[in-house]
Design brief:
Helix 1 (14-30) links the parallel strand 1 and strand 2. The chain is globular, with a radius of gyration of 13 Å. It has a five-stranded mixed beta sheet, covered by helices on one side. 32% of the residues lie in helices and 22% in strands. It is of the alpha+beta class. The protein binds zinc ion. Zinc ion binds next to strand 3.
Length: 101
Amino acid sequence: MILKDGVRMNGVSHELIIAFIIVNEVFRYFDYQFVVTSVTDSKHSNKSLHYSGNAFDLRTRHIKDSKMIDSIVNVIKQRLGKHYDVILETDHIHIEYQPNF
Ligand SMILES: [Zn+2]
């Protein structure tokens, strides 16, 4: 797992750290670098879970094959389960912890 320059982790939730571990395993399996591009830094929408340390973004631009990105997203979704949302954006994957009890 690589942190892009300027990524801030202050106040990151335990649940997000679990997600880092699992996503790291998935990227290792697919043999791509896992680059976190934002956690609590940067500008996000007003109610974004980034600010509370419950969301992060990761890079997809080094994965040229869009079907490969889809596969990675599907495996991450499967492995993180229902308490996490995994959203494929145009230039990154957004992952947030939002429990559904
Ligand atoms: Zn995000």
